[in-house]
Amino acid sequence: MTLDCLAAPDAATLPLHCVAPADLAALRARLAPEAAGFLDASGFAARAQDLRLLPGGTGIAGAVLGLGEGEVTPWAFGGLSQALPSGSAWHLADPAPGPEAALGWCLGAYRYSRFKAPGRAPAQLRPPAGAGRALQAAEAAWRVRDLINAPANHLGPAELAQAVQDLATMHGARCRILDGVALQEGFPALAAVGQASIRAPRVAMLEWGAPGAPLVALCGKGVCFDSGGLDLKPASGMLRMKKDMGGAAILLGVAEMVMRAGLPVRLLLLVGAVENAVAGNAFRPGDVLRTRAGLTVEVGNTDAEGRLVLADLLAFAAEHDPALILDAATLTGAARTALGPDLPALFTPQDSLAATLLEAGEQGHDPVWRLPLHAGYDAWLDSAVADINNVSTRTMAGAIIGGLFLRRFVPTGTAWAHMDVYAWNDGSRPGRPEGGEAQGMRAIFGAIENMFGGRPGPGR
What angle do CA 449, 364, 164 make, to 5 degrees? Predict the structure, then answer.
């Protein structure tokens, strides 16, 4: 994917000076007297997001960005591509900030433009030295955001599965797509979720890596639109349901980062691509479904379909002796009630794996927050007619209940983590434009790299 916010290495660029309040005096001493005088006269104090264009003989001679006090994050640079003059080109003046500047710049430059051209061209940044990994993360995030932002009539199960195939082709990976009878036999719960849609469900499987390397399995909920099924959502609840495939999109981004980095793992990406629609053949409340793992599930609510999709994917992943299983899904509104829109809820029975993911999230400026898999609530999933219900009759602890349901499909002792994501920005902030978001992507990739890529982390 081309990042149109990057300038060519040989492009003529203007200097962008990035400064914290403690370093403002040193910057003034380096600037030309007229530039330093302009900063003084304009009241520049290096507050966070404070931007000044420096005048020069032919117009603009440069710019100064205030970093404020405390830690410098990518979001300090997230508004620059839109705040600086359209089409202008810049380089980071010495002493230059780290790769987080390039990451923030590129994440802030993203606009979904498939059906409407952006109102302006972004300002461009000449990539600084050492920013290669940051730029790869930005490219993956742009791809994830494009998938989540795509309207459901343009991204159904076939198109989502094709996105997996396209990614495999780009990186020399193997991909197969299951549908029809093979899907119904191998992934029966997933097939039941998608059976009412005129767009047939699919499972896309991407495999990459050398034999003998540890296997990392990624399982993504790819519900391309969620009406709620026969337990129909209200109109307001459907407005953003094109994003219900956000977990799958995020794990596509993780897979892209793993393959581009050449991590020493085998990768198995599983995407359950379905649409939860309403028709005469829709699965019903009270139905009992068979799963790949052999467990039977009573359907307490057809709007808790994502966990049925993941149940079969997790069972398939577990059959391949993985070193690690990670799943991601826009699973519950309860997680958002507990943690708000910015913090994905993390569930895992392994403390060391939780520590690795939490640390990677902090390092990658992509935080997650751990919630408990409280065993005391397990009985809330009991069913009188099946092995398990897909929901609890109680209205509390919905995100935990979702995690406990998924845990039933992962063998005891297998390293596994579940991430309940929002995958959306409700409004625009520096580096985080309104719309689809690759929440948890950098945290998951960082954890995989720390565990298997040569840099020891808490979970290794």
Answer: 60
Q: Of 307, 407, 408, 442, which one is the catalytic site residue?
A: 307
The pLDDT score that the predictor gives to residue 459 is 30
Residues 6+ apart with CB under 8 A from 449: 261, 263, 360, 455
Pairing verdict, β 202-208 and 266-276: antiparallel
Neighbours of 34 (CB within 10 A): 12
Residue 454: per-residue pLDDT = 54
Q: For the domain with range 137-452, which CATH number is right: 3.30.499.10, 3.40.630.10, 3.10.450.30, 3.90.1150.10?
A: 3.40.630.10
Would residue 435 be called left, alpha or beta, if left means φ above 0 and alpha means ψ between -120 and 50 degrees? left
Catalytic annotation present for 233: yes
Nearest to 94 by CA among 16, 11, 5: 16
CB 220 within 8 A of CB 195: no
Name the one residue in this structure whose structure tokens are 């040989």: 10
Structure token digits, residue 399: 């995100």
Instruction: Please say if 307 is a catalytic residue.
Output: yes
Crossing angle between the packed helical segments 398-407 and 306-318, to the nearest 10 degrees = 30
Residue among 28, 133, 233, 290 flagged as catalytic: 233
| CATH for the 14-130 domain, from 3.30.559.10, 3.40.220.10, 3.30.70.2740, 3.40.50.2300 | 3.40.220.10
Report whether 361 contacts 278 (CB < 8 A): no
Please name the helix (run of DSSP H) or strand (run of DSSP E) that holds residue 175, with its range, or none.
strand 174-178
CA-based radius of gyration for the chain: 24
- Residue ranges in the chain modelled with pLDDT below 50: 455-460
Q: In the chain, what is the straight-line distance between the N-terminal and C-terminal CA atoms, in Å?
A: 32
In the chain, where the domains are located: 14-130, 137-452
Q: Beta strands of 337-423 (E only): which ranges?
A: 345-347, 369-370, 388-389, 416-420
Angle between helices 132-149 and 246-261 (to 10 degrees): 160
Q: What local confidence, expressed as pLDDT, does residue 312 receive?
A: 98
Cα three-residue angle 445-451-457, rounded to 5 degrees? 105
Contacts of 447 (CB under 8 A, 6+ apart): 353, 356, 357, 359, 360, 457, 459
Q: What is the pLDDT of residues 173-230, one digit of tens each?
A: 999 999 999 999 999 999 999 999 999 999 999 999 999 999 999 999 999 999 999 9
Task: Look up residue 421 and give its two tokens.
Answer: 């994501």
Burial string for 317-336 (b: 16+ CB within 10 Å, else e) reads bbeeebbbbbbbbbbbebbb
